[in-house]
Give the backbone structure.
Amino acid sequence: MAEAARRVATIDRPTWIMAHEQTAGRGRRGRAWIAPHGNLNATLVFRPQATPAEAAKRSFMAANALYAALSIYVPSEKLSLKWPNDVLLSGGKVAGILLESSGQGRFVDWLAIGFGVNLAQVPDRVAGAGFPPISLKAAGGWDVEPLDFLATLADAYATQEDKLAHLGFARIRQDWLRHAARLGEVITARTGKQDITGIFDSIDVDGNLVLITGTGPCAISAADVFF
């Protein structure tokens, strides 16, 4: 992600950057991201003609692309998507997504979508994780080299952009919900200010998590989800 931000001034087309090794990986909210050798650490940087809200919806496109790519190497019934930006494999976290953008006007100047996928190994020193890390290899998936997986992922993400252009976010949302973890079940969203527990009903047209609580529907824009 840092390299994408450094290079973006010279980029005139969608560009993938892959790190063979990371020494300063980061996740959401500045959390450390540990990246063992053999896993995928890649960022797509490009200039979508999108408002910040529209750019943020690409986290769902990224999740759909990861689901499609991973489904080639492991049975799809083992995979699910956890709001807002994780992919689960047999209940453990196999991949995460991070979005960063910049811009002062109506549209973002650029958008970077970071993908971290545990292909071969799980990170050490992950204590107290709500969803313990798991690797594709440990779950019985195929051995795949990061560069080969990136080729599969890039193709899957390009398909998502094509769907957005021709079918709109409604189709992206529909595809994401089809693979959503714990849809229709009771989950808890931790916003930092409070815990909100309710039935996972949907995501709305803006990508917000919708829970049915004792006081009615509640739309949540940012939180960590537990179940």
Remarks:
- The chain has a mean pLDDT of 93.
- The first strand starts at residue 15 and ends at 18.
- The two ends are 30 Å apart (CA to CA).
